């Protein structure tokens, strides 16, 4: 399914001043790479954010958020947030700030050869 265009545009606007932002099609949506590292993805009625694994347990207590699970594996440091929980700019900004904060310290994925 294509990503939610309105949500995509809101995320794009909030990341406009982040360093070295690049958009890539990924995970059935659009991934925003910041400084060459995955930061936020926008899909159908959800976003996923890469946050500090140290705050993961506290973060997923927020309404509409859960741990990202792919192929039966939970990914600490990745949080899925339902679009319904992101109606206000403050709610979306909360997650964008967490993702950008961790992005400055996160390690980039190894390049495939």
Description:
Strands 1-2-3-4-6-5 form a 6-stranded antiparallel β-sheet. By secondary structure, the chain is an alpha+beta fold. Helix content is 26%, strand content 35%. It has a single domain, classed as Aspartate Aminotransferase, domain 1 (Alpha-Beta Complex), CATH 3.90.1150.30. Strand 1 and strand 2 form a beta hairpin. The chain has 3 helices and 6 strands; from the N terminus they run αββββαββα. The longest helix is centred in the last third of the chain and has 15 residues.
Q: What's the CATH topology name?
A: Aspartate Aminotransferase, domain 1
Q: Any idea what the CATH architecture is?
A: Alpha-Beta Complex
What is the residue-mean pLDDT, rounded to a whole number? 93
Q: In this structure, how is the largest beta sheet organized? A: 6 strands, antiparallel
Tally of separate helices: 3
* Broad structural category: alpha+beta
Intertermini distance: 30 Å
Quick structural gist:
The protein is built from three helices and six strands. By secondary structure, the protein is α+β, with helices and mostly antiparallel strands. The protein has a six-stranded antiparallel beta sheet.
Write a concise keyword list for the protein shown above.
113 residues; alpha+beta; Aspartate Aminotransferase, domain 1; 3 helices; 6 strands
What is the fold's blueprint, element by element?
Elements lengths: L4 H10 L6 E6 L2 E6 L2 E7 L2 E5 L5 H4 L5 E6 L2 E10 L6 H15 L10
Antiparallel strand pairs: 1-2, 2-3, 3-4, 4-6, 5-6
């Amino acid at each position: 399914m294509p990503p939610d265009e309105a949500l995509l545009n809101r995320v794009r606007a909030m990341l406009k001043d982040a360093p070295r932002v690049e958009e890539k099609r990924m995970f059935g949506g659009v991934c925003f790479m910041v400084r060459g590292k995955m930061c936020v993805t926008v899909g159908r009625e959800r976003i996923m954010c890469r946050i500090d694994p140290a705050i993961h347990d506290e973060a997923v207590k927020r309404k509409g958020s859960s741990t990202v699970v792919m192929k039966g594996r939970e990914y600490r440091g990745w949080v899925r947030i339902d679009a319904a929980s992101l109606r206000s700019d403050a709610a979306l900004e909360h997650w964008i700030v967490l993702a950008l904060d961790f992005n400055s310290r996160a390690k980039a994925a190894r390049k495939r050869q």
